[in-house]
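Person: Show me a sequence?

Helper:
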Amino acid sequence: MPRKKNDPISSKEKQNKGIMNLNDNNDLSKFKFEKRKTVKIEFEKESSLDEEAKGLWEPVHWRNFLVNLRTMRAKCDAPVDTMGCHMCTDLNESPKIKRYQSLISLMLSSQTKDQVTFAAMQRLRERGLCVDNILAMSDEELGKLIYPVGFWKTKVKYIKKTTQTLKEMYDGDIPDSVEKLCKLSGVGPKMAHICMLTAWNKTTGIGVDTHVHRISNRIGWVKKPTSTPEDTRKALESWLPKELWSEINHLLVGFGQTICVPVAPNCDECLNRDICPSKHLARKSPKKTPSKININVKNESTLQSESSNIDKVKKKLDNTLFEINKNIVKNIKCTSPKLENSKPSQSSSRTVGKRISQRNKLLEQIKKCKK
């Protein structure tokens, strides 16, 4: 019979319930309880559409700067225009040898002026600049031909080692990628990117040398100041359109050789002087020396004050002169010999000489005041 709600529970029923609870606990122990994994709340990244709407970073007025830069470089009056690495190859040679000559000129140009690199390349071309001739040449002869380029002794080793690699691995030709070029001895990213442009006519990146590195930081073409040319290259390529990469090196190098020089740039000749953030570095004009004859129109009050000051100075000079004359007379009396064989002391004669020289100086000052 079913038990009513208000009926009391018997002791036997209580015991049976306790046994059932124990059994339930034993069954629950079979389950493994694991901690819940913490869920990190991350904000969703902005979509590419939002980035395009906001726009990537780019320098202020860079398009105007580029137009003015092309205008200033239109004269082609910089050393890089006539003696740069692109002008060092022999046009009468085969494309394979021209590519090799382009690579050698870039290796020589590191920390060397274009004039010195061009002269060294001319000597090498007269000797016969090709892979076989360089390998047959002694280190001493090669050093004499490339001297005085910067670090010429180290470059002799690099040229020999690189030429040997080209002979063994590339059949005397040069690699056709930046990665392979950078594996050659003495070749860095700057040389590799310029070599790809001049030798293979491929734009793979911006060649950043000291001029491009300095000017890019000076004109604010990098978002943050960079410490190395490689950092500058990455910063420029992050915003500059790729179709401009091929010309930017040549423009900035010539600009840095003629106007935006390292020390005291010629900002007066620069068309970008109004929009350049570094215009305070402009070369200062030398101070003009005052002319010998200065004609100044003075008021009557100033003339009277000056004349009164001159009178005061004259009185002081007269008084001092009078005192000096007194002292001279005293010293002369003291040094006058009482006996015929006696001689004046040296100290007293020196004091007299000093007093006389002082008197002469004062007389000159009095003459100037009178004038």
